[in-house]
Design brief:
- Helix 7 (173-185) crosses helix 9.
- The protein is 41% helix and 17% strand.
- The longest helix has 20 residues, at 149-168.
- A hairpin with a 4-residue loop joins strand 8 and strand 9 (353-354).
- The protein is an alpha/beta fold and 415 residues long.
- The structure holds S-adenosylmethionine.
- S-adenosylmethionine is lined by residues 57, 59-61, 83-84, 86-87, 89, 104-107, 110, 262-263, 280-282, 289, 311-312.
């Protein structure tokens, strides 16, 4: 079903959301015109995001992005969804705001990083748990290019503990939190990580590259007290959580669902049940999720090879469009009438490919009403840089979001 409708109506709906200040332009598609508004909507204008988000993940977005849409398009208890959950930015922000959540990702690592943050244990509970986890194993060490032998022993002992706890059914929320925190501390570029200096934690290099890096920098791994670093990171993650936020997280955790499906096939989600989806999909093959996460997967007892095969990495725009058409079809099925989908797309190949121009007609063809495109222009930051995408101009970076609405049938007839 194609919707007619006019640009003024869409612009007034978009204005209600964004305010009318900003640079307005238009996008033409299928003979219709759609408003585009550009402004710095979030990042520096909004208050600091919760420290609970500070788990790194390739191509994650800032929590202010989902917050912008959750606050404006939903009310407490509404269902918020992300089909490409990653580190869980949408789910955690929605839970902090007292919404119900579903988070999906084809990579099971996503759930391991996201779900524990809905049930954060006390720092004392983490310390007590770590105190009973052994620090030595009889396993063969072979990660000496990253870790001091004593550190590697601790990591291997911890890894084994979590696997055995899972197998015996004893694995609980304190283990889940400790594993999530340890996973995030495995490798990085400061003494706050278990490894010698290497790439940021979301981008593990190969053994061979690390050997070369050590040689180039004249470095060798020093001992790191893994338990002390987990406790320190836990303290930082939990530092600014208010009592109300903790209560909201607890409530959300009772109904939260973490799925491990292909975003095109999420039959476990009921039709017409989601009020808002906020998401950013994989972009062509710019991020190598398998290679970047091999060490994290190993630690969590996951098979990076098979995960790598299931992750969608379209090599060209045509296959990306086909994939996205199927994802949007599924999103249409699960979205409530009058619900929204905020679809964040990157600007790739130095801005020569604007993915909003591809996504917008796909959504339109499926039956969504595209209210328009919201472009957040922000000063360049480190997090924005991990897209692995070139900035179109020095010192700035943009998020481009196509906002779709699923009209109720009666309303769409009137447009
Ligand atoms: C751009 S990242 C999302 C990052 C997320 N917004 C965050 O803040 O962490 C895209 C995610 O899509 C996942 N993915 C790739 N192919 C998928 C598929 N077919 N179905 C579901 N998830 C998929 C990847 O594992 C990756 O976590």
């Amino acid at each position: 079903m194609k919707l007619s409708g006019d640009i003024q109506k869409r612009q007034s709906e978009l204005t209600a959301l964004t305010g009318d200040e900003g640079l307005w332009t238009e996008l033409e598609c299928d003979g219709q015109r759609f408003p585009v508004i550009a402004k710095e909507f979030w990042t520096f204008r909004q208050r600091q995001a919760s420290s609970l988000h500070e788990i790194s993940y390739r191509a994650c977005y800032k929590p202010q992005l989902p917050r912008f849409f959750i606050e404006r398009l939903t009310i407490p208890d509404d269902m918020v969804y992300d089909p490409f959950g990653g580190r869980g930015t949408t789910a955690i922000e929605a839970a902090l705001l007292d919404r119900r959540v579903i988070s999906n990702d084809i990579n099971p690592l996503s759930q391991m990083l996201a779900q524990p943050r809905l049930t954060p244990p006390s720092r004392e509970a983490v310390s007590e748990r770590l105190a009973i986890i052994p620090r030595i194993t009889d396993e063969q060490c072979d990660l000496g290019m990253f870790f001091h032998p004593d550190t590697e022993n601790e990591i291997r002992a911890m890894r084994r503990w979590f696997i055995e706890r899972r197998e015996s059914g004893a694995f609980d929320y304190i283990d889940a939190w400790s594993r999530m925190t340890a996973t995030n501390r495995l490798t990085g570029h400061s003494p706050g990580f278990f490894s010698v200096y290497t790439l940021p934690p979301n981008q593990a290099v190969t053994r061979k590259s690390q050997i070369a890096l050590n040689k180039k920098r004249g470095q060798s791994p020093e001992y790191r007290d893994t338990h002390a670093l987990i406790i320190r990171k836990s303290r930082r993650l939990l530092k600014y959580l208010s009592d109300q936020e903790q209560k909201n997280l607890r409530t959300a955790s009772e109904t939260a669902r973490f799925l491990n499906c292909d975003a095109r096939h999420t039959s476990k989600i009921e039709p017409n049940s989601v009020s808002l989806t906020v998401t950013s999909p994989p972009f062509l093959n710019v991020v190598q999720y398998k290679n970047d996460n091999w060490l994290r997967c190993w630690f969590c007892g996951l098979d990076a090879e098979s995960i790598g095969k299931s992750i969608t990495m379209p090599s060209n725009i045509n296959s990306w469009s086909e994939f996205m058409a199927d994802v949007l079809k599924e999103l249409y099925r699960i979205t409530k009438p009058n619900g929204h989908v905020a679809f964040e797309v990157g600007e790739i190949k130095k801005g020569s490919i604007k993915l909003e121009e591809i996504i917008l007609p796909l959504g339109l063809n499926i039956g969504f009403d595209p209210l328009g495109v919201i472009i957040n222009i922000q000063n360049f930051t480190k997090t924005a840089n991990i897209w692995g995408v070139d900035n179109n101009s020095k010192g700035t970076n943009t998020n481009r979001i196509v906002l779709f609405k699923k009209r109720s049938f009666i309303h769409s007839q009137q447009l």
